[in-house]
Amino acid sequence: MPSTDVVELILQDHRRMEDLFRTMRNAEADRAAALGEFAQLLIAHASAEEDEVYPALRRYKNVEGDDVDHSVHEHHEANEALLALLEVEDTGSEEWDEKLEDLVTAVNHHADEEERTLLNDARENVADDRRAQLGEAFRAARAKYLEDRCGDVEKVRALVASAGE
């Protein structure tokens, strides 16, 4: 049976993003399709974290509120990098490679930091049953975002614009 532990679900998404990065770096692969899947996953994942996981983690005294704020800030940076890549038309261009590396840097930095801080804190301080509840909420929110095609370029553009206000 698949895990419902929110920490495990988040880690699974991080590993999937790494797989998609490998595909997007491969000039022989269908980079556009990989980017399409990546865009949907990144926005759905981050939005579900911000809706369901981060507010819950803030309530634990052993989870650093500043780490939560920092993670939200890093989501905005990743969204900006994603938008920049989505707006490059030629997946074989140098510009595409450069924007991809900017995105990889932003996302990997965030995932690494989140895994070392928030997720470790959650694993240590949040009871198993509560992590399972959060996992269900995360999964449901993520599914709704995916259904709404949250990673389509117009939606990412609107998200980036609203974050800048």
Describe this entry's structure for a reader.
This protein has 165 residues and is an all-alpha fold. The protein has six helices and no strands. Helix 1 packs antiparallel against helix 2 and helix 2 crosses helix 5. It starts with 5 loop residues before the first helix and ends with a helix.
Q: Helical percent range?
A: over 70%
Total E-strand runs? 0
- Assign the structural class, choosing from mainly alpha, mainly beta, alpha/beta, alpha+beta, or little secondary structure: mainly alpha
Residues in β-strands, percent: under 5%
Tally of contiguous helical segments: 6
The topology string of helices and strands comes to HHHHHH
Q: Please state the overall shape, judged from the principal axes of the Cα atoms.
A: globular
Main sheet summary: none
Mean pLDDT: 94
First and last CA, distance: 43 Å
List low-pLDDT spans. none
Rg, alpha carbons: 16 Å
Give keywords.
0% strand; 165 residues; 81% helix; mainly alpha
Topology:
Layout: H1 6-25, H2 31-58, H3 65-86, H4 94-125, H5 128-147, H6 153-163
Helix pairs in contact: 1-2, 1-4, 1-5, 2-3, 2-5, 3-4, 3-6
